[in-house]
Write a structure and sequence with these properties.
Blueprint (H helix, E strand, L loop, with lengths): L7 E13 L3 H6 L5 E13 L3 E5 L6 H8 L7 E6 L2 E2 L5 H8 L2 E4 L3 H4 L6 H11 L5 H13 L16 H13 L5 E5 L7 H18 L2 E6 L2 H7 L2 E6 L2 E7 H6 L4 H8 L44 E4 L2 E3 L6
Parallel strand pairs: 3-8, 3-9, 6-7, 7-8
Antiparallel strand pairs: 1-2, 1-4, 4-5, 9-10, 10-12, 11-12
Helix pairs in contact: 5-6, 5-7, 6-7, 7-8
Length: about 325
């Protein structure tokens, strides 16, 4: 567990991310039309040495928020602070120094590694791009490979010569090459066999303990989140509806959507708490979950509920929680 007194590494405040639908002449004449909101007023913090989970169904905005923290996307509103520095609107040449301290592990390691390059070249590329030279490249590559449990002969093999688990270890080794303070793992084990998945999850935990890295673990798998995360944020259609320590979230979920999610893996929620599938209009007034919520009240149609503190490190956006 992280030290509760540890300073924040990431502080996301009221971040909204919008994307344009298509383009053409209409987009030029009416630049404010034809956009959709992928993330809405999201608040998220990650302390040093902490593993935070970001969970929700596909399309909920998890990956978009993760990439906004990396500043691969620029938010329309809100702020992203990394290690005390506001990086919300930094330009690419200013972000290069920041990116040295961040890393991203993708869902599909095979597509994230260049098939024409050996693992040695893949590992050396981040260092080479930041000015690394000569023997330093090989020394760091060997060290990274050893940390993730791959044999040294993997350095001269190509991605297609490795198994799925070995590929994800190689991708993680590449992420470690610049000694990042933050690693964002985006569905990093979802394509692995169950037996291999447990090995990779244990590797993530070992690396976090040894290197004191902070992780943002993006996943739709609640079992994975429960196993590796200190704290979990739940997203629904672009909004974070509940954030709590992992054990508390599973023991006493407060938001109806969180209970509906947990009901898919457990019998702790009754039938009336199960998600009611229906149309969701992200641009409509009121709570984003109101059309599916068994606990909606009149206020739910007026405005999305503000986020409130309901317990120690427990945040909730709901007018009528359980």
């Amino acid at each position: 567990m992280p030290d509760p007194r540890a300073p924040l590494l990431v502080d996301v405040q009221s971040v909204t991310v919008r994307f344009r639908r298509g383009g053409g002449l209409r987009a030029l004449l009416k630049p404010n039309e034809g956009t959709f909101r992928a993330v809405a007023e999201a608040d998220l913090t990650i302390s040093r040495r902490e593993v935070v989970g970001l969970v929700g169904e596909s399309g909920s905005g998890k990956t978009t928020l993760g990439r906004t923290i990396l500043r691969l996307y620029e938010p329309a509103d809100g702020t992203v602070v990394f290690d005390g520095q506001d990086i919300t609107h930094l330009r690419e040449h200013q972000l290069r120094r920041i990116w040295r301290r961040m890393a991203l592990v993708f869902q599909d390691p095979l597509s994230s590694l260049n098939q024409r390059h050996t693992i040695r070249t893949a590992l050396a590329t981040p260092l080479r791009l930041t000015g690394g030279r000569g023997t330093e490249l090989d020394v760091r590559a060997v060290s990274a490979l050893q940390r993730v449990g791959l044999p040294l002969d993997a350095l001269d093999r190509y991605p297609h010569e490795l198994s799925g688990g070995q590929l994800q270890r190689a991708a993680l080794a590449r992420a470690l090459m610049l000694s990042p303070a933050l690693v964002i793992a985006d569905e990093a084990v979802s394509k692995l066999d169950v037996s291999v998945r447990s090995q990779i999850l244990n590797l993530f935990k070992d690396l976090q303990d040894q290197l004191h890295i902070s992780f943002l673990f993006i996943t739709h798998d609640l079992h994975v989140a429960a196993y590796v995360c200190d704290r979990i944020a739940v997203m629904f259609f672009g909004r974070i509806v509940e954030t709590a320590p992992a054990k508390e979230l599973f023991r006493a979920p407060r938001h109806p959507y969180t209970r509906a999610l947990l009901a898919t893996i457990d019998d702790q929620a009754g039938e009336d708490e199960t998600a009611r599938r229906g149309f969701v209009d992200p641009g409509a007034a009121g709570c984003i979950y109101q059309s599916q919520c068994p606990r909606r009240v009149a206020r739910c149609a007026e405005a999305h509920p503000p986020t409130a503190i309901v317990g120690q490190d427990h945040m909730l956006a709901c007018y009528n929680p359980g």
